[in-house]
Amino acid sequence: MHRSRPTVAFAARTVTFSVVFGFGVVGIATAPAAAAAPCPSVDRTVKDVIAAKPWPQQRWDLSALPRGIDGSGVVVAVLDSGVDREHPQLRGQVLAGRDMLPGGGTDGRQDCVGHGTGVASVIAAKPVAGVEFRGIAPGVQILPIRVSEQLGGQENSTSARQADVKDMATAVRYAVDKGADVINLSLSYGDTAPNKLNEFRDAIRDAIAHDVVVIAAVGNAKQKGNPTPYPASWDNVFGVGAIDEAGQRLQASQTGPYVDLVAPGDQVTVARPGHGHGKESGTSFAAPMVAATAALVRQAYPALTESQVRQRLQATADPAPGGRRSDDYGVGILNPVRAVTDVLDGTARVTPAVLAPRAADPAAEAAADRAAQQRSQARWLAGVGVILAGLVLALAVALPNGIRRRWRAAGS
């Protein structure tokens, strides 16, 4: 679904950047930094492979999605730490992107810390034999844009590279220009004056104006003052909180009117750079579940605008604790299957453009034909039986009367 879009230039700013990686919300200065060397080669030794089915996939039966609905043809931009294209479940899924880090010289397909690879895998990991974990939209193409190597929990650290506000805006505009249909932002600016984020905000507004669905994590600082998160709190950005397996909001998941809905974000199975899997927690890993679902909706209903996609995500959410909209849970809990298959009332009703029937099974069809023929024969025999029974009854009544009245058969 590539769309040709303009690239817009702008000026640089210096602010404090807070990144939502895992449970940590980190503030670091983003003044222009000296060029940093590329990260060392990723350790590609075999890591643990998690074969068990992850709990979010147990919650949703993704096999109930219509055949062919897997995000194919949809581009999701992941603004993160990069994405490792060599992971077996991501090979062939990752486009050449861009590196916005100071001194960065990659095409975005290198991940030194693993966060972006994990996020991308939640969206687009392909099914492989012996592993139950898969992305929600394994047909999606990932557009990786490196903007941070900062992991949560390393408070006040300046050792990791970060993109500044100018480069964040450039990253968003680059994603739009390269045809992204959905942008995932598992990051947040916290404790930052909004007027210092004007360039980034304007780039987000432009992306939305160009019909791009923008998904953002609401952050993991509930217990650290619950600061207003940007971009999740900006108009028309879809803010995502996190729940655990019991359906309860994670304690760290921030709350406020900017929470549009929640998704699984506790002990989420993700791909690790190189090979294998791990588990992560936080709104960073809830957001890509929503981004993947938005991709499914964009494939199934290509005529929907980004606003209608957001409305559909909310209209098909499962009830959250309390049963009504709240600052903790938004309108409810994400349901990818309902987001695609539910028929909505009113103006939102649409007919999926790509809802291919499930593959025909010749043996099953032959059995169905035989069963239908047998049912037809049974109905015919039943009808004949009713007629014969009626004749017998009529004769049983008429013959005695005929004998009494001396009736004779014709020709007798």
UniProtKB/TrEMBL annotation:
Catalytic residues, chain numbering: 80 (charge relay system), 115 (charge relay system), 284 (charge relay system)
Transmembrane segments: 380-399
Biological-process GO terms, alphabetical: proteolysis
GO terms of molecular function: serine-type endopeptidase activity
Protein family (similarity comment): Belongs to the peptidase S8 family.
Location relative to the cell: Cell membrane
Membrane disposition: Single-pass membrane protein
Organism per entry: Catellatospora chokoriensis
A Pfam short name: Peptidase_S8
Protein name: Peptidase S8/S53 domain-containing protein
Keywords: Cell membrane, Hydrolase, Membrane, Protease, Serine protease, Signal, Transmembrane, Transmembrane helix
Primary location group: membrane
Cellular-component GO terms for this entry: plasma membrane
Keyword Calcium belongs to the record: no
Origin superkingdom: Bacteria
InterPro entries for this protein: Peptidase_S8/S53_dom, Peptidase_S8/S53_dom_sf, Peptidase_S8_Asp-AS, Peptidase_S8_His-AS, Peptidase_S8_Ser-AS, Peptidase_S8_subtilisin-like, Peptidase_S8_subtilisin-rel, T7SS_pept_S8A_mycosin
Signal peptide boundaries: 1-36
Signal as UniProt keyword: yes
Positions of the Peptidase S8/S53 domain: 71-332
PROSITE patterns: SUBTILASE, SUBTILASE_ASP, SUBTILASE_HIS, SUBTILASE_SER
